[in-house]
Amino acid sequence: MEKFLETEILLVEDNKNDAEMAMRAFKKNNLTNKIYVVEDGEQALNFLYAEGIFADRKNSQNPKIILLDLQLPKINGLQVLEKIKSDPEKQVIPVIVLTSSKEEKDITESYKLGVNSYIVKPVEFDKFVDAVRGLGFYWLLLNQPPLID
Predict the structure, then answer these.
(1) pTM for the full predicted model
(2) Cβ contact 21:128 at 8 Å
């Protein structure tokens, strides 16, 4: 259970290559200690609500940020985003969509549902590392989240 208490970043990514690239980018930017990766929308919600295989996790221990792909099996990213942002206890968690979709409908719908940022995944690793550095610096160091009881 200790690994869940320390989670700062929840990475929701079904593509193993993209997840591996993200983890390499986090490592290169010294952001690897407190990341938990899930592979689909159902796992993401189970993690956040301490259900299923994550039942031993404390429901109140929210990650500092969620990096969310949209194209996910079981429950898609927009449905996950809608659930998070409609829940008073979870809606304060910054959610950053990190996806390959440049579709205007996905961007618009994400913002309508309350996403904090929408980033199209850079294909080149160096650009991806730069994007992760910026995410980590802003969301983990500069951003001041509200205190939740």
Answers:
(1) 0.83
(2) yes
